[in-house]
Amino acid sequence: MERIKASIIAGTALVVTVGALSFPVWSYDDRSGTAQANMSADMVNTQWGPLTASDRDLIERVRLAGLWELPAAEMAMQKSSSKSVREAADHLIVGHKDLDERVRTVATKLGVELPDEPNDQQKGWLQQMRQAQGKEFDRTWANLLRSAHGKIFPAIGTVRNLSQNMMVRQLASDTNQTVLDHITVLEKTGQVDFDAIANGTI
Questions:
Q1: How far apart are CA 97 and CA 82, in angstroms?
Q2: Smallest Cα–Cα separation from 148: which of 117, 186, 195?
Q3: How far apart are CA 112 and CA 106, in angstroms?
Q4: pLDDT tens digits for 15-42?
Q5: DSSP of 50-87
Q6: According to the model, what pLDDT value does residue 58 have?
Q7: Are 92 and 69 in contact (CB under 8 A)?
C-alpha cells in the first residue's frame, strides 16, 4: 500500500515538473504583448530586407520635410532680399525636389503610405514665415529651418546605422548628405540664433 502511495506521489510530482518546465516555452513563444512579439508585429519582410517601424518613420519624416521646406524655400525666394538667404533657399529647393522623388520611389516599392500635406506644427512654421517681413523674415526663416534640420539629423544617422533594409539605408544616406548641406548653407546666412535653438525656444 505504501509503495502504491509513493508511486502515485512520484508520478504526480513528475507531471507537475514537466508542466512547469513546458509552461515558459508556451507562454513566451506565442504570447502577444512581449517585446519580441511586438517587434515581430512591427517588422515586415521585403526583398530588400526587413522593414521596421523606425524605417517607416524615417520615410514619412523625409516626405514631411519636403512638404513644408519646399514652400518655405520658395517663399524665401519671393520675400527675402538677402543673397545668402536666397542661396540657402536654392539649396533647399534642389535638395528636397531630389529627396522627394527618391522617397516616393522607396515608399511605393516598400508599400509605405506617405502624407500629402505638412503636419500641424509645420503649417504653424509656414504661417510664422508668412507673417514676418524684411529682416525678421530672414531670421525667422533661417532659425526655424536650422532647428528642424538639427532635430531630424540624429534620427537619420540611427536608421542609417541600424536598418537592415537596403533601400532605407540608401535613402538615409542620401538624406544625411542633403540635411548636412542644408544646415551648412543655413548657418552661412548669419541669421541663425544658436543659443535659442540650443535652449529649445525655437
A1: 22
A2: 186
A3: 8
A4: 434 343 333 333 333 333 433 443 344 8
A5: -B-HHHHHHHHHHHHHHHHHHHHHHHHHHH---HHHHH
A6: 96
A7: yes
Quick count: other Cβ atoms within 10 Å of Cβ 123?
14
Q: Got the DSSP string for 71-129? A: HHHHHHHHH---HHHHHHHHHHHHHHHHHHHHHHHHHHHHT----SS--HHHHHHHHHH
**Angle (CA) 106 109 113, round 5°:** 75
Across 89-161, the runs of DSSP E, i.e. the strands, are none
Handedness of CA 63, 105, 172, 88 (dihedral sign): negative
Supply φ then ψ for residue 61, to 5 degrees: -70, -35
Residues 67-96: pLDDT tens digits? 999 999 999 999 999 999 999 999 999 999
For residue 83, which phi and psi values (nearest 5 degrees)?
-65, -40
Q: Where residue 164 falls among pLDDT bands split at 50, 70, 90?
A: very high
Mean pLDDT calculated for residue range 43-54? 93
Per-residue CA distances from 121 to 66, 110, 193 (Å): 14, 27, 20
Question: Cell 535652449, residue?
Answer: 199
Provide the pLDDT for residue 47: 95
